[in-house]
Amino acid sequence: MLLTNEVELIEGEPIAYIKPIKSLVLADLHLGYEGIMAKQGVLLPQVNLKSMLLSIGRACSGRDVSTIIVDGDIKNAFTTVETAEFNELYDFANHVRGIGAKLVLIKGNHDNFVERYKGPLGLEVYRQETKIGDFDFFHGEELPSSKGFLVMGHEHPAIGVYDDTGRLERLKCFLFGSYKGSKLLVMPSASYFSSGTAVNIEPKSALLAPVFKQIDVDEMRAVAVGYGSTLDFGTVGGLRKLAIAR
Amino acid sequence: MIEHLEKPFSDQESLNVLNRYVRGWFTTNFRELTPPQRFAFKLISSRQDTLITAPTGSGKTMSGFLSIISRLFDYSLEGKLEGKVYCIYISPLRSLNNDIYRNLTRPLNEVYDAIVKELGIDVIKRNIQKVSIGVRTGDTTQQERRKQLLHPPNILVTTPESLAIMINSKKFAEHLKGLEFIIIDELHELAGNKRGVHLSLSVERLCEMVSNNVTRIGLGATLSPLDEAARFLVGNRNGKENGCKIVDASWQKGFVAQTISPVKDLIYTENEAIEDSLYKVLDGAIQKNRTTLIFTNTRSGTERVIFNLKKRFKYGEEIAAHHSSLSRESRMEVEELLKKGSLKCAVTSTSLELGVDIGTIDEVIQLGSPKSVTRALQRIGRAGHSYKELAKGLVVGLDRDDLVECSVMLDAAKKRHLDSFSVPRNALDVLAQHIIGMSLSQKWNVDDAYNLVRRAYPYSTLDRHDFNALIEYLAGNYVGLESRRVYGKIWYDEKEKMFGKRGALAQVIYMLNLGTIPDEVAVAVFSGKKWVGNIEEEFLIRLKPGDIFTLGGKLYKFEYAKGMKCHVSEAHATEPTIPPWYSEQLPLSYELAIEIGKFRDRFASALSKKGKGKEAEVDALLSGMPIDPNARVAILDYFNEQLAYAKVVPNDRFILVEQTHDFEKGTTLIVFHALYGRRVNDTLSRAFAIEIGEMLDIDVGMMVSDNGFVFDIGGKVFTRQQLVSAVNDLASANITNMLKQNIRKTEMMKRRFRHVAARGFMILRNYKGYKKSVGKQQLNSQILLKAVEEMDQNFPILKETYREILNDLMDLPRAQDVLSKMRRKEIDYLLINTDVPSPFSHKMIAFGHADVVMMKSRHMYLQRLHKSVMKQIS
């Protein structure tokens, strides 16, 4: 669906396409997660990278894509780059190159030490807020300083909706609103293994990103993504009222 | 061959198998042999595999042990008793183990003292050692364990879990190589679940390690069917079942019990008045008896009864609660006080059901139906100490269905129509654990390992493909070669068909994670910053913001949950909106359900008769039931009302399908009066919900209970013709696949999958010293499940989850049987329309267990969800 004239949310995928800069944006990939979990005794099937590449493949089809922007947290471990992460980063970067696109990473809090490998991975790494065209990308663990269309990750937003029998269904979502007069888009996590934080159910104080101390999340629009579709669910505030009423 | 023994040996014959000193000790301490002992002494002494079923207090334990003690003293007298384990005793309860230790220490000491007294200094010259005994459970200290490693006890008392650890510890296993006897106590608590399945493999592996022929002895209080229990005990060799002697002395203990209704009219009497009367009954019994034991069906019920007794009658320390949520110390204290006779009354849920010694109980009172004949017998059997005394019991029915159920139950108990257990077959998660365990001690040829596993009865029909798939999974073959180092649990050489240990940490990881009892993920509940208690994760799943529930006797309003923390505020309401027993209700057994159905049939046909004989027949039926006058009136009214309103009473061969309306919501309800026990109803209801959902093109809201199931079909109408085609469709459909499709989406599937994944070592609970749960890692099990499904639909962990749900939790075979009988009209059915629900459906509608059956397309579901959300907002 078209969010604005310039920004399209790809149907059923946690990916935004920004036309003026011919870019696909994803956030919070957490590549290498399965390998790290396996080292902790939890055997997850290796599906994250595979599903992500399929998503990107679908997003590219019929669109002119020159850049893939990862808005933070391309990998998972804080302290180092694990072998499993390196392997997946390598495959990911290779795949992007295969599409003929440039890979840009806006560093997030999980992306320590990635710069070491930017040469072999062919990765463009930016430490903080970065402006590409009229769009301002930042991961989200700090407040943005400049103006323009703001795009962040970090929060892993989702909405929780109760069905008729009281079961909670959680769906990843984009959040769209404004911050100090600029448009603000919050990306859902692209990771297969993240189910997200239900922003309409958790109290506002439980949200991670400092930007939510400045603006009211209830005024943002939630566009849910999952089961192959992307749907506008109205404001977070509306969904919050609904959750409490049930 | 499995053989039932009818005729006991004479006392003389039995005593003659014991050596002089042990016989001397027995005859000074006991006047005569008890029934199980008249069989067991001789059988065990001649090394026969034996299954003994006898009531508590009948000298059952001694019947298993005495011949063994005698034999060990024979060795000792010959100077040949070595410092190794000759006999292993396994029970599911640690507290029972401590009892056994205490009870055997005395005879071992006294027999040895008698020998010393007679032989004097010769004892040293002839190297006559005392027969030693030791306990090894999770509670055993490190120091004690080290001591046991140096000086292993001749008789080792342990639990299934500790046994599994011992057979995998190289050093200790050395001491087990001279084993001659294995005793498994409380077999009825093990044979029907995965703990028992795990044990059966441990026993086969242990026997494989031992050079002797090991004699197996099984003990149980109430076991049915006995042949199945015997098969479980002895296992197979080369595809044939081993021989076993069965001693059934369970009929030896009688009981007197009655079902009562606390008030004349259970419907229109105010709740408070019913409670007043109920507590008066309890107080009366406590006053009259020296010691009273009260069983409730839930932990919260136990708490409530204690609270009320103390509040109403000013009881203090002389009454106490005993349930599994209490700390071990406080439970042991209650057991001690009961033994000493210094407690007037104990209130418990299930924890005092088993054979822990609790001294003499005068009367057992059961509140509400315990849902199974076997359980009723076990509970009432706790009263009256010796097997010769009649056990005295009182069952209080709390509604009219309860009254019918309890009186039929007591009647069936009198006739000893027990519920049968069934052994879980071919559980892949438990097997995964054992394959890893086997790999630790040696390299195995895959065929040899397969053959060994199949000796255990639960695996006698194990499919070779499943076994191979499991080996492949454990070898990590489902990931790329480079990741196998982390993913592989065992080393496996496909060409040589050999497997063995992988990694230096394998042993430690195995020991820390083995076992079959799932970690119930406890969720901490916070009111503001204050911790107020824990709830089960399953309970949390059901909560919506604003729901009010009780915790520790207080009411709280659910706000939200994050990770493993649940946030609440104090509620100023008077009633909880979510009943606290939601997740702890006991399921009605199939056998009892059928008995109730038969009673309904008999009683309803007597009531529908016309003419002279009617009164007398009705009267005779009621007088034959163990009920008080109140209950008698209530049951009679209940049936008369149903007959007057609906003209028919459903029974075991007649399912009434009632189309009616929900009072409040105004929607159409379809009530299936199907009385086949909870497990069958769980299965049937899902099958019908899917079928009807597709027919009417709706999501069917569903409530399952013991007496049937209810569907909410919104504004739609269901016709007779549709019912007929639904039955015919289901009878010929592949229900297994249908149910799998349906179960996939449920909370139950996610939860069970996680348990199976932990048991099958896909998710380690304890890794390198960090205790973790998936919950704590906030890994969404739905996503994990989806990932596994996408990888391989036949992945062993996934396959086992479905098997566990369909066969252990539900009862697919019996549900299929009911469906085909419906098609053949061996079970009749009829659709009627009522304006208001008929009396027999009231409880079902009021107390159902809600779940959802959704239509196939998730996509459409999402859109509809969206639409209804938008409508409500605007």
Shape by Cα distribution of chain A: globular
The coarse overall form of chain B would be: globular
Mean pLDDT of chain A: 90
Strands of the widest sheet of chain B, in order across it, are: 1-10-2-7-6-3-5-4
Arithmetic mean pLDDT of chain B? 87
Largest sheet of chain B: 8 strands, parallel
Structural class of the secondary elements of chain B?
A: alpha/beta
What is the CATH superfamily label of the domain at 2-252 in chain B?
Answer: P-loop containing nucleotide triphosphate hydrolases
How far apart are the first and last residues' alpha carbons of chain A, in Å? 30 Å
The CATH class of chain A, by name, is Alpha Beta
* Poorly predicted regions of chain B: 848-859
* Largest interface between protein chains, with number of residues from each side: A-B, 47 and 52 residues
| Percent of residues in beta strands of chain B | 15-25%
Count of distinct strands of chain A: 15
The main β sheet of chain A shows up as: 9 strands, mixed
Helix content of chain B: 40-55%
Give structural attributes:
heterodimer; A: 246 residues; alpha/beta; Purple Acid Phosphatase, chain A, domain 2; nine-stranded mixed sheet; six-stranded mixed sheet; 6 helices; globular; B: 874 residues; Rossmann fold; eight-stranded parallel sheet
